Amino acid sequence: MADDGGCSAEVVVVIREYNPKTDGERVEQVESNCEVGPNGELSLYTHLLGDPICRVRNSPAYLMLVAEMVINGGDATEIVGMIRGCIKTVTCGTKLSRNKFGETPKQLPVFTKLAYILGLRVSPVHRRMGIGLKLVRRMEQWFGDNGAEYSYIATDDANEPSVSLFTGKCGYTKFRNPAVLVHPVFAHQLSVSHRITIIKLAPSDAETIYRNRFSTTEFFPRDIDSILNNHLNLGTFLALPRGYIWTGSDKFLSDPPENWAVMSVWNCKDVFKLEVKGASKLRKGFAKTTRVMDRAFPFLRLPSLPKIFSPFGLHMLYGLGGSGPLYTRFAKSLFGFAHNLAKECKCGVIATEVSSEDPLKLAIPHWKVLSFTDLWCIKRLGEDYSDGSVGDWRKSQPGLSIFVDPREF
């Protein structure tokens, strides 16, 4: 309650849908206030390039809500929080096909409708008032109204307030711990093995390979075709032994080479940019020195740190997979190719996310100081979508790999 000339004025928090015509600048201000890290510590700031919905816009269904302070049910004062959510259909497990007598059963994907919460923000001066909980519950209501069976969130395992909110008050349980592997883009190119040929696939060939070989992978999106045909997808690339003649995905799947690897590249640079803030002059000077040395002596292939202390873009590598005893070596060649592509596009870093059980976690080059462990928490909202073959997905054991959707990175 607030007093104004002897008259009491009730201030309430109203949760409503984001209005791009009137809310843009106010939402951006809240985002800026929330991104400020502790004094003297490095913090990662996200530039949304004037589009607060950019990180969910490419999903099949999405919604952004804001929390607004309103006086006496009439005049709005300020936006104090926001949340984004999206819904898609993904693989949550497998089942055996029903075949005729004598035929070998095949593993088939079991799909579920999955919702994802991201970008929950509450203004620092309005925290501990239950606003975050209200935003989550209203978003979950929209999830349920649209048939989502599960909801999940991704957060830094060290983010205690976020973990406490979702696991303590919202009913989520810790589910998966994938590794986010980040590598800076050097001023010099990385070498790619001359024994390996890398070709760019047509979206239709990429879709055929992904559906045939990866549709039973946990979190595989059923609308993979929408991702591969999106303008942000820079292409799907296949690493093959030199001398292998490519004649199409059907022939490849029926008679693949012993070793191969595949990878797609998503252009996050045109969606948002990142910036590391809070660095000392000494750190900035050291980073600049590494770049100067790398440009001056590219033949030395010195590791250098890009301009991460000003806004920089990134490429997301997703859909990494393959087969054969030399599979990880082929994946490394794809990584080198992706690094060089990011250099041409003037990106600061490249990143990928893999299961904690995936051998790629150790094989893919990355800088530990830039990489981290993610925490995915999950909640069951209903039981009306999947066919019961999996049971409660929350209780399942992690697989060897996961399929990370680049639209949600």
From TrEMBL:
InterPro entries: Acyl_CoA_acyltransferase (IPR016181), GNAT_dom (IPR000182), Plant_NAT (IPR052810). PROSITE patterns: GNAT. Keywords: Acyltransferase, Transferase. Pfam families: Acetyltransf_1 (PF00583). Residues 13-191 form the N-acetyltransferase domain. GO terms for molecular function: acyltransferase activity, transferring groups other than amino-acyl groups. It comes from the Eukaryota. Belongs to the acetyltransferase family. PANTHER family: ACYL-COA N-ACYLTRANSFERASES (NAT) SUPERFAMILY PROTEIN, N-ACETYLTRANSFERASE HLS1-RELATED. This is N-acetyltransferase domain-containing protein. It comes from Mikania micrantha.
